[in-house]
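Hi V.,

You were right to ask for the full record rather than a summary. Here it is.
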Amino acid sequence: QVHLVESGGGLVQAGGSLRLACRVSGMITSVFWGYTMGWFRQAPGKERELVATITSGGGRTYADSVKGRFTITRDNSKKTTTLQMNALKPEDTAVYYCNAAQSSVDYWGQGTQVTVSS
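Predicted structure:
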């Protein structure tokens, strides 16, 4: 069974940084290669939104709101993805979810809370 486990959330002041990590288990490395990894977030009272994605080849997409501040990476050999978040703003406060997607298959982590104080 595939599991995604996030870590690295917490409380930080505006302008600070956090690094989120997501580890995938239950999936062999060669299969992991075929998945696009992503980070989504959901703030209270709002819909879940895309933050960033990265393909197996390293192609990246970012939400306009995080461009220039967040960086997504992946390590295919370790089956991990990270989200480096710099210059955090109070509006970045949300539960952040790791996602692995391929065609119609979708896996999600349990989420990690990020709170940015002003």
